[in-house]
Write a structure and sequence with these properties.
With 274 residues, the chain is α+β, with helices and mostly antiparallel strands. It is built from six helices and eleven strands.
Amino acid sequence: MNTTSVSHSDLLNASAVEVRTAIRSGAYKGHTAGLAAGKLQCNLAILPQRFALDFLRFCQRNPKPCPVVGVGDTGDPALPTLGGDIDIRTDVAKYRVFRNGALSDEVTDITDEWADDLVTVALGCSFTFENALQRAGIPVRHIETGLNVPMFRSDIDLVPAGRFGGQMVVTMRPIPENQISQAQEISRRYPQAHGAPIAIGDPAEIGIADLSRPDWGDAVEIRAGEVPVYWACGVTPQNVLLDAGLPLCITHSPGHMLIADVAEDAETTILTNQ
């Protein structure tokens, strides 16, 4: 197996398949913001089948933070509606493994964790619409500076389903004040990637105390004339799964997404468990 390291900048012009190949080989272990422009990026939730239906109900009731874009067959690590060669056990740069409500491991391969009763749920990611923002000349600070997007816990309550519930996680991007309306309209076109912002301006209004101290990702500079804008975040289901205390669940590590072969604005077909 080729383990020669490649950097984020090495992959900026790579295809989705090339990025996944670098990740699968162990050559790349970093975040995926800005990679495979134009392709859908996905958050992950992998959980035992007996909990999957309630989790999917939860996602259906909370589509802003949890837009479902693909569901795997029980025990099958493939996601054929998102890519012909995807192996969910190896094709994400970093995973988080949770046991009984606690983080157990952060790993780059979950082959040893895979079991015949596991179901993969792929959820849309805000990285998807960032390409559209950049094409429109709207700055995306964390990509410009080579950082991971800042993510924050909020006090926005979610609609529960079964044992799943909690508060929303949000991402923040500083947007020039005169481009906020344009950013709203562009992101609204991508409901599978969290859609339009859920808040603008004062972080205290959604329960965030300090924008310089994100709960996940990296802090970014907010420059003169810019306003913080908040979008629902796919890390939300990680918190929900953690609070549910499942015996086992696996997610991506924040910022380390699955990159699909389908276009970021494609109508994705859900493969249900039958």
